[in-house]
Structure formats: structure tokens, C-alpha cells
Design brief:
Blueprint lengths: L6 H7 L1 H13 L2 E3 L9 E3 L22 H9 L4 H18 L3 E2 L10 H15 L11 E5 L3 H4 L2 H7 L2 E6 L6 E4 L5 H10 L4 E3 L10 H4 L1 H4 L4 E4 L6 H8 L1
Parallel strand pairs: 3-4, 4-5, 5-6, 6-8, 7-8
Antiparallel strand pairs: 1-2
Bound molecules: iron/sulfur cluster.
């Protein structure tokens, strides 16, 4: 695998992709080369204006309102079209580097149903030519929206290869945040879940990254558990208790 250590240099080496990347940036899209956890190209959207107002972490420890992720999020356009063009560039970069794209590292599908519909329909139109499917995904992401608020979009996105997991949900395609990975905490989560719970491998010893782990898109049958890290510990803990 080629390390996407410098997405801009990578994009510029490939003429067509360079144009997509520059177009996305000129529209206000923000793209990143990933971090030690994801090691994958990703897109950013603003936090809050693209998120459900009901998200319990908004302003209360959301990781995307911290440090470098926040710096990227505040630069991203709130409009859906730049995010769609950015997604095309990220998916292409992922294909070139043997990775999946991580869509909206910060932000979500949209704050209103009209914004969700516009983003998802254009995203599907733009990414369908990549030929992804549930079995052969091209990107992955997470949403704090309840399925009742997003209509058919979650299934439609998965059908074209965007593996989208549901946050704060202890069932199929779910992810949860636990106060810690203490044995009693994990055991309780496993008792209460309707699907087997696994701990995020990037938060365990062993040096896994999303690019090597792949659970978030390969195992919809599992619930992925995260624990807060760094500066989010105290604030997230307050939300979880
Ligand atoms: S479980 Fe695997 S794919 Fe999912 S976030 Fe953790 S390291 Fe990445």
C-alpha cells in the first residue's frame, strides 16, 4: 500500500484526480490524509450545521470539536456540493492507495431532511460510477441520525459501497462509546447489545489502523465500541454517566 502521507502531492501526480481535488478545494471542501487511527483519505464537514441537533456530544465533548479535527471542520463549506466533490476525490485517492475513503470525519449527513436528501442523493449519483456495493465498499462513515429521520438513505448508501454505521446504537451496523474498556464496562455493554460487541482495534495495543482492521465496513453484524481518548475523556464521560 502507498502511504497517503501527502494527499495534495498524490493528487497532483495524477492529472484527472488532481483536477477533482483542486475543484473540491476551490469549492470549499476540506480533505485530509488521515491520522494514526484511520490512515485513510477523508473528508470534513462543519460540526453542528450538518449534524442532528439531538446529538448528545455536540458541544459536550464531540471529538470533532477538538484539536486538529476541529481546525479542519471549521474550514469546510457547509454546502453539500463541495462535500460531494470532495468525496469523489477521497474515494479515488483511496482506490489509488489501496484504502477506503473516510467520509465526513467531522459533521454528518445534514441538519435538516432537505439537506440530508440533497447531500445523499448527490453523493449517490457521484459515487455510483465507482462500482461499490455492500460486499465491496469504497468508503465508510458514521451517522448520529436515527434511521427514521433519514428515510431510505442509509440502505441506499450501503448499496453503492458507502458503509455507514449508526452511532449510539447497540445493534447491527452500530457503534457505541463506552466510558472505558474496563472489563465490567465492556461486559455490561455486551449484555445489553443485540449484536456482538467488539472493541475498536485502533484503541487496543497492536498498532492497527482502519486500513488494516476493516471491521467498520466488513462486519455489519458487529457493534464497534470506542472509548474516549485524549482531551475528550472528561467531557464525554459526563455525557455517558
Ligand atoms: S474498529 Fe477498525 S475500522 Fe472501525 S474505527 Fe476501529 S480500527 Fe477503524
Amino acid at each position: 500500500m502507498t502511504a497517503p502521507s501527502d494527499l495534495h502531492a498524490l493528487f497532483c501526480k495524477i492529472r484527472a484526480l488532481g483536477k477533482v481535488y483542486e475543484k473540491a478545494r476551490s469549492l470549499g471542501a476540506v480533505l485530509g490524509a488521515g491520522n494514526a487511527k484511520t490512515d485513510s483519505p477523508g473528508t470534513y464537514r462543519p460540526v453542528g450545521s450538518t449534524c442532528p441537533a439531538s446529538c448528545p456530544y455536540l458541544g459536550a465533548g464531540c471529538y470533532a470539536q477538538q484539536r486538529r479535527t476541529y481546525m479542519a471542520a471549521v474550514r469546510a463549506s457547509a454546502a453539500h456540493y463541495p462535500a460531494v466533490v470532495g468525496a469523489v476525490a477521497a474515494v479515488r485517492a483511496g482506490q489509488i492507495t489501496g484504502r477506503l475513503a473516510r467520509l465526513h470525519v467531522s459533521g454528518d449527513l445534514g441538519a435538516t431532511r432537505a439537506e440530508i436528501d440533497a447531500y445523499c442523493s448527490d453523493l449517490i449519483a457521484a459515487l455510483t460510477p465507482f462500482g461499490g456495493s455492500v460486499e465491496s465498499p469504497i468508503a465508510w462513515t458514521y451517522t448520529h441520525h436515527h434511521p427514521r429521520d433519514v428515510g431510505p438513505w442509509l440502505d441506499r448508501l450501503r448499496a453503492i459501497g458507502v458503509a455507514i454505521r449508526r452511532s449510539d446504537y447497540s445493534g447491527r451496523w452500530g457503534v457505541i462509546v463506552l466510558p472505558s474498556f474496563a472489563p465490567d464496562v465492556v461486559a455490561r455493554a455486551r449484555r445489553e447489545a443485540s449484536a456482538p460487541v467488539v472493541k475498536c482495534r485502533a484503541q487496543l495495543p497492536g498498532g492497527a489502523t482502519c486500513a488494516t482492521c476493516r471491521i467498520c465496513w466488513d462486519r455489519p453484524d458487529l457493534v464497534v465500541a470506542f472509548r474516549p481518548d485524549g482531551g475528550t475523556d472528561r467531557r464525554i464521560g459526563a455525557v455517558l454517566t
